[in-house]
Amino acid sequence: IFPDFDGTLPTEVDRAKGLDITLGSNISGADSVYVVIIDKEGKIVQKAYSGNPAPAKATFTASDLSGLSAVTDNAAYVEVVPFTYKTPTISGKQYVFIKEYAAVTAVNIK
After folding, report:
1. Predicted model pTM
2. What distances in angstroms separate CA 44 from CA 25, 32, 74, 75, one per listed residue?
């Protein structure tokens, strides 16, 4: 079973107002969740949460978003990435196996 996100992503990020993205029951099958905002210059703001259970929402304050650039051509992205991982030892070597789902949408940032 792969992790999943069944929620709705925003179409715009307002740096002055901050942003909430509903997680909670929209996240399933995940140990952890990353919520990421990337502007067109590659600047990243991210939050990491437990996925089991996921918090009710991911909150980015105006202060969190203040370093992002304005974007008017939908060249920025919001991502919700629930994932699970295992770290088995096989033949004396440790491996990491990751299952993830990435919900991604293009957004404007004002």
Report:
1. 0.90
2. 26, 18, 16, 13
